[in-house]
Amino acid sequence: MKNVKWLFVVLLICSLTSFVEKDQHAGGLQVGSKAPDIHLQPMDAGQSMQTLSGKRGHKVLLSFWASYDAQSRLNNANLSYALNQVAPESVELVSLSLDTYQSICEETVRMDQIEYRHSYMELGGGESRVYKNYKLEDGFSNYLLDENGVIIAKNISAQDIPAYLN
């Protein structure tokens, strides 16, 4: 119980402190760029492998995270909750873990209460092609993609979602 309280405090502090402004050009891909395609390995054993380009025709919120990065986990959970409340049919969440072990990904998704149908994993972590193509060395990002796979927003918060959908 003491560890849970400590983890909550760390997540809260991380959510209150942000050193990179949303509009700043720090790392990653930029608004207007075409999102590189990704082979999406689902966490749900009942789903088959998909691609990001296969989701064209729909807006997609691509959220990168890892279990060891408290800020990215908190952002991912908040975005998932907000999309379920505000626009479950308007935007498809692609929650992509960049952890090294599948068991850690699955346990984190369960703890953070993310729907398995939105959860994917890239087990290569920092060595993966996705990590390099999306230039995540400076931190995990999220990207809102239009129906053609073009980045229309970057590092949005749960509070930003209604504004981008109107």
What does this structure look like?
Helices cover 32% and strands 19% of the residues. The longest helix has 17 residues, at 70-86. By secondary structure, the chain is α/β, with parallel strands linked by helices. α2 (70-86) links the parallel β3 (59-65) and β4 (91-97). It has five helices and seven strands. It has a seven-stranded mixed β-sheet with strand order 2-1-5-4-3-6-7. The protein has helices spanning 2-16, 70-86, 102-112, 129-133, 161-165, and strands at residues 39-42, 50-51, 59-65, 91-97, 119-121, 142-145, 151-154. The chain has one domain: Glutaredoxin.
Query: In which order are the strands of the major sheet placed?
Result: 2-1-5-4-3-6-7
Strand content: 15-25%
* Assigned CATH architecture: 3-Layer(aba) Sandwich
Total beta strand runs: 7
User: Under the CATH scheme, which class?
Assistant: Alpha Beta
Question: Could you estimate the helical fraction of the residues in percent?
Answer: 25-40%
Number of domains: 1
Mean pLDDT: 84
Tally of contiguous helical segments = 5
CATH superfamily: Glutaredoxin
Instruction: Report how far the terminal alpha carbons are from each other.
Output: 42 Å
Order of helices and strands: HEEEHEHEHEEH
Shape estimate:
globular
Oligomer: single chain
> Any idea what the radius of gyration is?
15 Å
- Unreliable residue runs: 7-12, 14-26
**Main sheet: strands, sense, barrel:** 7 strands, mixed
Query: Which structural class best describes the helix and strand composition?
Result: alpha/beta
State the CATH topology: Glutaredoxin
